[in-house]
Amino acid sequence: MQDKNSPKLIAHNPRLILSFVPIIILILSLIFVVKVFSSSVMEGASQIALLVASAVCVFIGMSFFKIPWHCFEDGIKENIANVGSAIVMLLLIGAIGGTWMLSGVVPTMIYYGMQIVNPKIFLFVCCIVSAVVSIVTGSSWTTIATIGVALIGIGQGYGISTSWIAGAVISGAYFGDKISPLSDTTVIASSTVGVPLFTHIKYMMVTTVPSMIISLMVFLIAGFSFGNGATYDVSDFSESLKSTFNISPWLMIIPLLTLAMIFFKLPSLIVLFLSAALAAAFIPMAQPQIIPHLINTDDKTTFVDMIKAMMISCYGNTSVDTPNAMLTDLIATRGMSGMMNTIWLIICAMCFGGVMVASGMIANITNLIMKLIKRTVTLVASTVFTGIFSNICISDQYLSIILTCNIFKDYYDKNGYEPRLLSRSAEDSATVTSPLIPWNTCGMTHATVLNVATLAYLPYCVFNILSPIMSIVIAAIGWKIYRKNVGFDH
């Protein structure tokens, strides 16, 4: 029997009601800042809300449970270290956003896309294209930051709501991310519980394919309503593109080489860096006419001016005047500097996640969940809830997957469930719901890249909303739920 006076026992078992206090404070604070600051919540207000909730957690931990400060500090350091590569990736994605736009890659995609895609099936096509690209690349982030931006531009040309477009793009991208053998989240989920990668992917099809089919049906129906009501003059938009940029199929060399690098399994950071560098190098060759706009000069451009323009396209805010006001807004870029608010928010979110883990509050809440488990459907529902809850608290999908799998691994094993049920349930929740949470790394990144607020696109991410629900429904009917040495669980 454990000593009830043990500081360790007290430190790691805070009372349940106190464990919910920081989360309640965070939710109330975020509701307040969203109402007060509206679209500018990422400029500082959300960060303050996260730090206030973190401070409440630390206060409770140090005052009531005698947890020393160094435990919280270590938790924060570890959490921030875990997203170090993601922060660098964000900066490179910002560089790609600027260089792919100003080199003419995205304008070329938009121009040709508007010639071949019928607006009535546009949302349907958005979802499928994003899914295919994400399967090939293994990255929802890269898909959304490249083809996603182009699709937003095409859709705007058709007069379709950007919230719907973002929802279709994100739905397709996360479908591809889940079933791609190149996806880091898929590898993490399968390896954490010891399931062979392709066994994990095959088993995910049971919940993923139905969710995707329903999503495509929704986007097809919605697209017809938008297509019938679209009144925007697409020809005017296309002509404005041609008069501003040199449109050429040769510019597609850049995305094709990017796909080739991904196919040959180069590390993501290397691929993003080389892709941005290649696109920047194309600017003086493919779009020399926009260099004066980038460096604010009317003089003849020199070699130094070209280098300066290439660097500005990577890191700076840029704007090029066009005959079309909507196009002018669309092609404005923010580069690496445009990612700084997002990075700031990520660091604050990691502080909150770190102190919540260090205080033992997350573990205490999940222990409550364990007590509610009675049969298969409640087990899967508890796993799904934990994945979503972890995304809300820890604000990072990778940590949420790992935490969810580690919490339930022993329980699944002791009760005879095959581990692939756990890995699938974790992906059905932790992976796909991450872009739906405004302060999660995924939610923040996609909102910044697509220039559509997380809460604005959330209702239209049909696949992301359906996946966790489908996981629970499949468990409830007992379809292909396996037990060790037993077969199907009825």
In short:
The chain is mainly α and 490 residues long. The chain has helices at residues 7-11, 16-37, 45-64, 69-82, 84-102, 105-116, 122-137, 140-158, 162-179, 184-193, 197-229, 234-244, 253-263, 268-286, 291-295, 303-315, 325-331, 340-358, 361-372, 376-394, 397-414, 419-431, 441-450, 454-457, 462-477, and strands at residues 482-483, 487-488.
Explain what you see.
This protein has 490 residues and is mainly α. It has a domain at 85-338. It is built from 25 helices and two strands. It has helices at 7-11, 16-37, 45-64, 69-82, 84-102, 105-116, 122-137, 140-158, 162-179, 184-193, 197-229, 234-244, 253-263, 268-286, 291-295, 303-315, 325-331, 340-358, 361-372, 376-394, 397-414, 419-431, 441-450, 454-457, 462-477; strands at residues 482-483, 487-488. It has a two-stranded antiparallel sheet. The chain is globular, with a radius of gyration of 24 Å. The relative contact order is 0.15. Mean pLDDT is 82; it is low at 1-12 and 486-490.
